[in-house]
Amino acid sequence: MTGAPVRFVFDPELAAFQLTPEHPFKPVRYELVRTLLLAAGVLTADEVVAPTPVGDDDLLTIHDADYVEMVRAASDPARRPPDVELQRYGLATSDNPVFPRMHELVRGVVAATVTAVELVATGRALRASSFAGGLHHAMRDKASGFCVYNDLAVAMRRAVDVHGMRVAYVDVDAHHGDGVQWLFYDDPNVLTISLHESGRYLFPGTGFTYETGNGRGRGTAVNMPLEPFTDDDSFVDAYEAVVPAAVERFAPDLIVLQAGADMHHRDPLANLNLSLAGMTHAYTRTVELADRHAGGRLVVTGGGGYDPYRTVPRAWSLAWSALSGRELPGELPASWRAGWTQRLGVELPATFDDPAPPPVPRRAAIASRNRSVADRLMAQLADIWGVTLQP
Amino acid sequence: MLVADVMTRQVVAIGPDTPIRDVQALMEQRNIRHFPILEGRAAPGQPDALVGIVSDRDVRLVGADHPKAPAGVRSSDPISRLMVTDVVTAHPGDPIEETAKAMRTRKIGAMPVMDEGSLVGIVTAADLLDALVKMSGVEQASARLEVEVANRPGALAELLGLIADRRVNVVSVMTTRGDAETVSFVLRVSTVDAHGLARHLRRAGVTVAWPPEKQAVP
Lengths: 391, 218
Known about the structure:
heterodimer, B: 2 domains, 4-stranded antiparallel beta sheet, 7 helices
């Protein structure tokens, strides 16, 4: 296999559970991606590596002890606390139901992302993926938005504390990466950049341009809120206006890309109007930025993505293609489609080609508003950074 | 929310004999725009009486070449020559919407807050804007839900019941507009799946203005 040494961190157990049967967050996505990449010939079996387990002490580098204890207790049917108590920690809600072995399984997600970061930080791989990871809403002391433990934060904490790295985090999930942002809000060694549908409209309601970091971390939080129904062109414009300049100035040793796939127009939870083409721009450009500014080192995680069968496997295959430098075939392998169509009872798309949705009537106004928000954001950051940015 | 929740308690007040130029200096030093003016009462143990208020605008106009500049007033004169004596005041227990309305109708930017004859604070238009930001703001991760319900007893309770069925917590509720037939509310709800919640509400006959209709995926 040609290209850079790359690893796909995966454990069948991470793809084999459900939060509840009707819950929109579907772990089977990771198995769909793995099998699609293997069938398409862009991933070899020896590049798929199992996560190295982590302990509760690793979780405690980010999470409060009483919260971890609450998750442990909730995971054990014999000593499950009452719902009112669980709900103080964001658990036993529609978004974060308690499910069997929750503590162990989500700790496994943390292990997968920590493993990906370790492989890259120690030079055993140039780039790695952890598509089960990307639980960016989890907070220090509570579960939020389908996320129980913050795998990204645990892994990035380790990159900073153990490997002495500066980490740039780029989040292209449709939802603001609030958990990661707040966990590193004061930290000058971690740059968080999030592009997302504006918090005025979408969960979690934060991620405004004025959230720029605090204390020694001032200027290391960057937020680009996008108007609902933003399309490929306007997204690419916003990405280009914000991400390259922020990454270049920060000069990271590692980039972590949270590649939530819910900016796609078919996603049932968000209201953006992207196609796979716009999303792929973020993947390929972030790889280029890693090459230019971080010695090539990049870890890609999953995240949101609630059109789990038609959109997510193709989106993350395109992310893997960018990460590995291997070209996908135009068509999805027939064997893969046949097998999964039978198993899921859902018709799957035949090609990676993804026609853009029809433009919305307000298209020009949306693009113009995004542009002015990006300009205002960059002017404000230039002021904090004390630099003059090229227009 | 009440005036007591948003007012400034450390009030800088001045006496009526203070020269205008000293007031001007104090305004610039302390970056304050409104001064209540207090005068000692004759009887011992009585609180000082509020006798007037002066704004930065009144003070700046002294000696200015401006049609509204006060005629014959010099900056060495006492502030009592300039102060407004018909002072509109607030009470710490007043609801802030009432205070906001008073400021708009009387076209003033600040109100001294009086409790039992004593000056206990000052509330300004900026304090009310801060309160608005806080009231509409997001303290917990949440999504926006905009609905229209019938203008009749129990309609909001039924809506909240439908939301509770989904085990979704309501973080805030604001009334945006209403008429004889319907009332519109903007709620912040603690769920990522606002579309799923909206489908649930639409099925129950609620008019949902945000999020827009969207198909569920298989």
